[in-house]
Amino acid sequence: MSDTESTDLPDSRLAEVVRRESGLIVAALTRDLRNFDLAEEAVAEAVAKALVGWRSTGVPDRPGAWLTTVARRYAVDRLRSPVSTRVVLTGDPDAAPEPSWSEPTSAIRGDDRVAMLFGCCHPSLAVEARLALTLRAVLGVTTAQIAAAFLQPEPTIAQRIVRAKRKIVANGIALAVPDSDLAARLHDVLTVVLLAYNARFLEPADPAPGPHPRADRLTEDAIWLAGLIATELPHEPEAMGLLALLMLHESRAAARFAPHGRLILLADQDRGRWDHPTIARAERLLERAALYRRPGRFQLMAAIAACHASAPSTEETDWLQVLTLYDLLLTHDPSPVVRLNHAIALAEVLGPEAGLSELDSLGDSLAAYHLFHAARADLLRRCGRLDDARIADQRALDLTTNAAERNLLTDRLTSAL
Q1: Which residue positions in the chain have pLDDT lower than 50?
Q2: pLDDT for 138
Q3: Which residue from 265, 262, 344, 332 is spatially nearest to 297, judged by alpha carbons?
Q4: Using CB atoms within 10 A of its CB, is residue 251 exposed (0-12), middle (13-18) or buried (19+)?
Q5: What is the pLDDT at residue 200?
Q6: CB-based contacts of 102, cutoff 8 Å, min separation 6
Q7: How far is CA 330 from CA 26, 143, 193, 218, in A?
């Protein structure tokens, strides 16, 4: 143990180590043992041992090495005795002595975590399975934490992860960065990371709305993963685009909520509270990505976010540039949600009637999406159709369980009376 390491709060340090090391260790063990299930189980056992042992002994000087050696020993024991019972966690520090790197071990390459990401996000797996498996195997998020973040029963998430791992083994899916079709596969990986970030907005109704620890954890993990991918694939502009996008979103986090968890919309946020150094870094990252002249979905979304972040106010936003970027984004992602945002930008350029006309054309595909009704209510108000706006706001309220959004919509409906 380090002389300066406190033994009082090892759990927080363990969380940092797990995030940084678990994907590396699982990937290295899977590569060596050719058994994804066993590798993930071994790392989970090592983390459990650490959680017990480090509370009494403190965090070791090389926690990643400690976890790697304990996980490897567990995996080897399981291979030697397939029917043996699981290791009993006694909490005895002598049961898991400080490991040494002099013991034989394969090298752990920095890109192993990215290779693991590509395996977990293979196109043969359902999107929900990719997300759950990435959080579990790459980041070490527990099944219970994943279930809580995505409002799913824990057994459902557990089965999803088990089926995904079995499919990887049965189909011989390589945990490797693909040599061919990299752009399409990378898009799948980046989409999963974006979904993990967006988990913060899935919080249900709560007596004390606003940021929640479990959502913040997934947010931090997603940004960390985006940075890892951009670092390990330095010539992929879409990886830079995703990292820039998440940095721009996060730069506004401090201004997103008022006291008591009240949601503040972009137009009403105090831009002085935005993290402008982070915005500047994200813009430089986008400029670097643009040098490759390979625009894509994530770069365009980041460019739109940058237009908002650089504007002194909503009124001074370059809405024509935003609309142009949405036109380009639609060529990469013609989804109804992108068309919804295109309609909002169109309303700022050509007026609310033009935006409402485009929005109404999406009614069939977005009828169950609360933000469609909330956006429509705003445009209806601007068109002077106040009764229709109240109906749309009520529909949005009926469709969302997010506490902050419900409070905002309730305030709108109350003020309209």
Answers
A1: 1-8, 82-110, 204-214
A2: 81
A3: 332
A4: buried
A5: 66
A6: none
A7: 38, 36, 21, 28
Query: What end-to-end distance do the CA atoms of the chain give, in Å?
Result: 64
> pTM, whole model, 2 decimals?
0.81
In 280-401, where do the E strands start and end? none
DSSP 257: B
What is the DSSP-derived secondary structure letter of residue 116? H
Residue 414: C-alpha distances to residues 210, 291, 406, 407 (Å): 21, 50, 12, 10
Asked if 136 and 162 count as a contact pair (C-beta separation under 8 A), the reply is: no
Residue type present at position 373: H
Amino acid letter, 413 = L
CB 165 within 8 A of CB 158: no
Nearest Cα to 132, choosing from 124, 123, 143, 122? 143
Residue given tokens 């997300």 in the structure block:
131
pLDDT in the model for residue 207: 41
CA–CA gap between residue 342 and residue 325 (Å, rounded): 9
Tell which residue, 307, 314, 361, 311, has the closest CA to residue 334: 361
> Could you tell me the two tokens for 309?
């972040």
